[in-house]
Amino acid sequence: xxxxxxxxxxxxxxxxxxxxxxxxxxxxxxxxxxxxxxxxxxxxxxxxxxxxxxxxxxxxxxxxxxxxxxxxxxxxxxxxxxxxxxxxxxxxxxxxxxxxxxxxxxxxxxxxxxxxxxxxxxxxxxxxxxxxxxxxxxxxxx
Length: 142
Hints:
Helix 1 (11-21) packs parallel to helix 3 (41-57) and helix 3 packs across helix 5 (78-90). It is built from 6 helices and no strands. It has helices at 11-21, 23-29, 41-57, 63-71, 78-90, 98-136. It is globular, with a radius of gyration of 19 Å. The longest helix has 39 residues, at 98-136. The chain has one domain (7-136): DNAb Helicase, Chain A, CATH 1.10.860. By secondary structure, the protein is an all-alpha fold.
């Protein structure tokens, strides 16, 4: 896997990196982040392991602990494990301004929550329209 260029880094990677290396950030931001805010499956799996570890041990995980935990999962295959491990290998400690990171993460979480809510609303409307249409053969119900 190619190393990430920090100049083109996505906010998701910055957030995950700081959940691993920045305890102050993790304690403030983790409670507000959700798994479904991460659209990439590997990032979602890594976030899930970080969240489980922090909630269980009340401490930030090491990269080694995350690899071990990921290796014990039964719901991912060997290729997925290797992909997440490769992702984890690209995550290196970088110092970043805490307030900027909190502000940027808050915006990311709000944007993803709105995006997910809109998608959920569309799915609900599509299913409702489909049920209405199949019940009465019209797109409206009486």
